[in-house]
Amino acid sequence: MERQVPAELSPAHRIAADLDAYLGDPMDDEAGPFSYKAIVEAEERDEIPAGAVDAVRAWGFPAYLVPSRLGGRLTTLEELFFVTRGISRRSVTVAVMYGSGLLAVNPVWLWGSERQRATVADGLLRGDLACFGVSEADHGSDVMASESQADQEGDDLLLNGTKWPVGNATRGRFVTTYAKTGSRDFSLLLVDKRELAPDCWSVLPPVRTVGLRGHDLSGVMFMDARVPADCVIGRRGSGLVQTLKTLQITRTAIAALSVGTIDAVVRIGMEYSRHRTLYGTDIYHIPVIRDHLVKAHLDLLIAECVAIPVTRALTVAPGRLSLWSSIVKYFVPVMGEEVVANIGTVLAARGYLREGVAHGVFQKLQRDHAIASIFEGTTHVNLANVAGQLPFLIGSSDGEEAEDDQAEELLDDLFRWTRTPPTWEPDGRILQLTNEGLDEIGRRFEATAEEVLTAASTHAAPGVAAELKELIGGIAGLRAKLVAGIRAAEGDTSSVAALARARRYCEIHAMVSCMRTWLHNRRDFGGPFADGAWLVLCLQRLLQRTQPDTVLSEEFLPSLEEAMFRTFDERRWFSLLSLAEDDRPVRPSEE
Amino acid sequence: MNGSVTISHDELQAWLVDRIAFYLDRPPENIDPTVELARYGIDSVYAISIISDIEDHLQVEVDVAEARKRETVTALTDYLLELTG
Questions:
Q1: Is the ipTM of this complex over 0.85?
Q2: Which of A238, A518, A553, B22 has the most crowded CB, counting CB atoms within 10 A?
Q3: B2 in a structural domain
Q4: Which of B26, B38, B40 sits opposite A429 (nearest CB)?
C-alpha cells in the first residue's frame, strides 16, 4: 500500500509543545520560576516561585479556562488536559490553582446567564481567580447536609454560612457558593466579592497541608451577605445536579495532574538510575530497578490511553461522561500514586531527601500528587459512581446501543489522536447523571477484541498476534466472571464487594482503551507503535493488577526501552508518540 | 372511584416527569415513563426530594419505602392515584 500524506495531530499537541518550550526544561537550573531548583526553594517558604504565576499568565493560560465563544481559548477539554499536563510535570500546585478556578466557573459556562458569563469571562481574562464554595467543615462529600443558606429578602438573597476548605478562597474574586434556597433545595450562587459590602464576609486562615504548599487553601464566611436574587446560576433549586455534572469535567482533567507527575518522576528516576553507579555499573542494570522504570513508563502509556479519549468525550459523547469521568478519576490518580511509590524505591534514600537529585523535588511531587485521589470526589466516591451504574451496564442493550458503524465512528472520534474534537459549546443539559447503561468502550469488548486479533494477524510484529490472542482470552474470562458477579449481586451497588466489582470494571475499561488506541492510531503512527508490542506489554501490565504473577514479555521490551531512552535524552514528553515512526504523525503547525 | 379524584393519570404523570426532569436537569421529553428511575440516576437522595414534592402537590402522606418499590414513573403514578383515589 502506498504511503499517504502523514496525518496531523490534533491542535492540543502543538499548544502543549508551545507551553513546554516557553516554560523551559525543569531540570535546568536556569529555567526560571519553573525550574525544580526554584520550585523547591520557594516551597521551603510555603510559596510558589516568584514570577511563576506571571509567567503562566503571560503565556495565556487563564484564557484556557474561558470558552472560545466568550473570548477565551478553551475549545476542547483535550487541549486543557495537555496544557495542564505540561504545568503539572513542573508544579501540580500551579495547575491546581487554575483547576480549582475552572471548577468554580464551569457552572457559569454551563448554566449561567449571558451577563454572568460575560462578567466572569472578563474577570478571568484579566487574571481574576474563582473558587468553588461547596465544602463545609462538618459535611465532606455529604452535600445534602450543607448548612449555608440564602434566604429571600425583598429582591435580594441574604447569604449565611462558612465554606471550608476551599481552594483560592482568599485570592479568588468569584465564589461559586452552594447554599440552601428552600426547604429541600440547594442552588449555586455566583458571588462576586467586589460587589459585597465589606463587613458581611471574611476569609479564613490558610490551611496547613501536606502538599500543594503555596496554594491558597482557606475558606470564606458569609454573614448576612446581601446578594441579588439573579446571582443564582441557572434554575433555583438545581445546585446538586449542577455540582454533580460540573465535577464530570474537572474529574477528567485531574488525570492530567497524574500524567504530568508520572512523567516527572519517571524522568527523575531515569536520570538517577543512569548516573548512579553501584557495584561497578549504573543502577539501571539492576533488574529490579529496570523493572520499576519500565513498568512506570508503561503505566504512563496506559494513562494516556485511558484519559485522552475521555477528555475528547466532552464534545464527542457528553452523555457518557458520568461513567467515564469517574473511571478516569479513580484509575489514573491511583496508578499515579503507585508509580510515585515505585520510583521512590528506585531513588531509595535519595527520594527521602529535600536536596540532591533534581534538587530534592521528588518528595514534593509525591506530596503534591497525593491530592489527585482525594479532591473532587475521592477514590471511593468515584468507585461508588461506577458501582451504581454496573447493573445497567450488563443488561440487554437491544435498541439502545448505537448501530455498529455509528459506534465505530464514535470510537474513532474518541481514540484517534489525529482527529480534532468539536469545539465545546457549554450546555449543562447535555451532561447526564448516569450513562443509562450506555458504554461504547466497555460494552463493545467482543467487537474490539475481534478487531484487534484480525488486525494483529496481518499487521503486527511477529509473535504479537499469538500473545494478544492469549491475553485477550484471559481478559474475556475476567470480564465474564465480572458480569456473572454483577448479576448474582442482584442490585447490590454499595457494599465493599460492589466497589471491588467497580474496580475490576475500570481495569477492563483500561485494557479496552489500550486496544482501541492501537486500533485507531496504528495507520497514522506507523513504526513500533503499529507493531503492537507495546499493546502486549500494556495488557500484561494491567493484568498484573489481578494476576500479579503475569510477566512482561522480555522480547518486546527493547523497542519500548529504546523509545524511553530516546525521549529522555531528547527531553521530550514520555508518550505513545515516541513509538511512532519518525515524523509521523505530523505535529500541527502554528495557526 | 368515589369522585374525589381531582387529577387524571396523564396530568399526574406529566407533573411527575416534569419534576424528575428538573432534578436531572434534562428536557422532560427525554424522560421515558417506563424506564426505571435508577437508570437515570434518581438515587435515594433525589427520591426523598421527589416524594416530598409529591406530598406537597397532592396533599397526601406517602410511605417512602412503598413509593420506592415503584421503579418507573408509570408505576409511581398508578400507586399515587390509588392513594388519592
A1: yes
A2: A518
A3: no
A4: B26
